[in-house]
């Protein structure tokens, strides 16, 4: 997690741009060019997504420390979309960005190990260790308990990667399960948060945070504050800012006294900034950059800077 924190400190920006492109977000001229070359096919759609992503990455590389592709937006275009996902990861990393793969993967034993190798490590082929996606971090679902998390940890250590465990998510119905209380009086989300502290205990870095982070939504600021107090060594990935309704005051409790401890995600508000502001479609990336700067300044002013 130190690599992400160092990037946040260097850019004075605790935000991550979600790369969750829908075809409706992409300028029509860009779609037309891809369809002209590949047809109105999955390959044409995936090609347009890649060009759109490259433009966004070029515009944001000097502003944000990280990007977060959500795997589902690429899987919907089949293997062509997965090829675009891999190319997007490589391009972002070449531009110096930390890449959080939002796959919410979970299974047990060797199956979870395979997920970890695919998304964070390498795959052995005829004696060669080959990277498949090789992101810098992966979101994971803890519902299967330690059996679904522990196979991930050696891969994280070996390849200097991290994981973000779903703890208190930003969606409206999250409380149906996550707010349930056990006999000991602890909620499910607090229990999972405590496990994150345990799972990452031997991987704490220079800034005091471990490789095992937590996903905690901006739409529940009271729980965000509660978890920040309870989990001093767990770095937070905070969705829910912007289009989902969270603001700077809502995310502020995620941060420690140094202005560290969390990275806040926004996707739709950045990717569709050109449409919301009425900008020319040729200026879609510039509009995204302007919104990313606005978001950065909004949050940094609320938390009092990054030290």
UniProtKB/TrEMBL annotation:
Stretches assigned to coiled coil: none
Domain Orotidine 5'-phosphate decarboxylase: residue ranges: 14-289
Record keywords, A-Z: Decarboxylase, Lyase, Pyrimidine biosynthesis
Active-site feature positions: 104
A Pfam entry, by short name: OMPdecase
Molecular function terms from GO: orotidine-5'-phosphate decarboxylase activity
One record GO biological process: 'de novo' pyrimidine nucleobase biosynthetic process
SMART domains: OMPdecase
Catalytic activity: orotidine 5'-phosphate + H(+) = UMP + CO2
EC number(s) on file: 4.1.1.23
Pathway as given in its UniProt record: Pyrimidine metabolism; UMP biosynthesis via de novo pathway; UMP from orotate: step 2/2
InterPro entries with a match to the protein in the record: Aldolase_TIM, OMPdecase_AS, OMPdecase_type-2, OMPdeCOase_dom, RibuloseP-bd_barrel
Similarity section: Belongs to the OMP decarboxylase family. Type 2 subfamily.
HAMAP family, per database record: OMPdecase_type2
Entry protein name: Orotidine 5'-phosphate decarboxylase
Source organism of this protein record: Caproicibacterium lactatifermentans
Gene: pyrF
């Amino acid at each position: 997690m130190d690599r992400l924190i160092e990037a946040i400190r260097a850019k004075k920006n605790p935000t991550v741009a979600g790369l969750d492109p829908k075809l409706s977000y992409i300028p029509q001229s860009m779609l037309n060019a891809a369809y002209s070359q590949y047809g109105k096919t999955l390959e044409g759609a995936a090609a347009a997504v890649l060009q759109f992503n490259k433009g966004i990455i070029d515009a944001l590389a000097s502003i944000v420390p990280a990007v977060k592709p959500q795997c589902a937006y690429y899987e919907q275009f089949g293997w062509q979309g997965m090829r675009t996902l891999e190319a997007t990861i490589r391009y972002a990393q070449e531009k110096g960005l930390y890449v959080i793969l939002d796959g919410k993967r979970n299974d047990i034993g060797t199956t979870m190990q395979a997920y970890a190798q695919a998304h964070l490590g390498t795959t052995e082929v005829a004696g060669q260790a080959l990277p498949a996606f090789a992101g810098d971090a992966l979101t994971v679902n803890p519902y299967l308990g330690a059996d679904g998390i522990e196979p991930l940890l050696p891969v994280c250590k070996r390849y200097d990667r991290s994981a973000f465990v779903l703890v208190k998510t930003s969606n409206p119905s999250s409380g149906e399960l996550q707010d349930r209380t056990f006999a000991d009086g602890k909620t499910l989300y607090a229990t999972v948060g405590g496990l994150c502290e345990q799972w990452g205990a031997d991987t704490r870095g220079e800034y005091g945070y471990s490789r095992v982070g937590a996903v905690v939504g901006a739409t529940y600021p009271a729980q965000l504050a509660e978890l920040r107090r309870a989990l001093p060594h767990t770095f937070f990935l905070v969705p829910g800012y912007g289009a989902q309704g969270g603001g700077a005051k809502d995310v502020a409790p995620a941060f420690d006294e140094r202005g560290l401890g969390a990275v806040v995600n926004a996707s739709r508000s950045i990717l569709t900034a050109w449409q919301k502001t009425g900008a020319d479609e040729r200026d879609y990336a510039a509009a995204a950059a302007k919104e990313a700067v606005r978001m950065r300044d909004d949050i940094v002013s609320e938390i009092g800077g990054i030290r």
